[in-house]
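Problem: given the chain below (287 residues), write out its structure.
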Amino acid sequence: MNVVLKAALWMTGAIASFSFMAVAGRELSGEYDTFEIMLYRSLVGVIIVVALTTLNKRWHEVHKDNIRQHFLRNIFHFTGQNLWFYAVAVIPLAQVFALEFTSPLWVVLLAPLLLGEKMTRIRGLSAILGFVGILIVTRPNPETFEIGLLIAACAAIFFALTILLTKRLTRGNSITCILFYLTTIQLVLGLVTAGFDGDIALPTGASFPYLFLVGCAGLLAHFCLTTALSIAPATVVVPIDFARLPVIAVVAMVLYDEPLEVWVFVGALLIFAANYLNIWNETRKKA
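Solution.
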């Protein structure tokens, strides 16, 4: 099978998973707060990761090296995911996904500070283009500005910090090890934050399918995306990943009567162009 077709099939799984997770998060938002959603998401994740690690006999890959980095990475991811679930509940899903695409641009800006990487002209240009795209998507107006837009933008920054720390962890840790600490540490964080007020909403017959879907979709989305990137270069995968935006926009229109706003797509295209410019430049330099 053609490499591009294989990557496209895996990305189809990622796009579907991200969309399912967004819809499930929206459906759960009326009954559960974001900490409770993260608690159950992590619980499902722990069960899946432990089961697969046991079946594949990979417990030897799980070690305590870099435990501080694992903990810090998961604080960032836990924070970003909570902000994302909040944004999903209060602003149009297309805007959430458009702002989420800015994560790679924040990586470009933060990498010189955290990884010691050089800030080049192309990286700087891509960051400026991405910022213009953000302004087009959000169209800030003091009278009509939605706090959810700022929350979604902050989520993208925390996802960028997660990406940077994951990049450092992959130098000496397997995917199994990273996923194990991702689910277990965030399960503890979810239990502490959800139970801080002494009241954790329990699953019901109506909510259980959505809670289970959030846990499965979260793991599956990142597994599909990682697999696609291992098969094909980022210059192929990223344009396919961008299909998430029109897909979730149509889903939101059908399920929640959210309008298809032209400016969201215009801004998102500019953000995509900024990402692609940076990826193309990095690929060209390596070649």
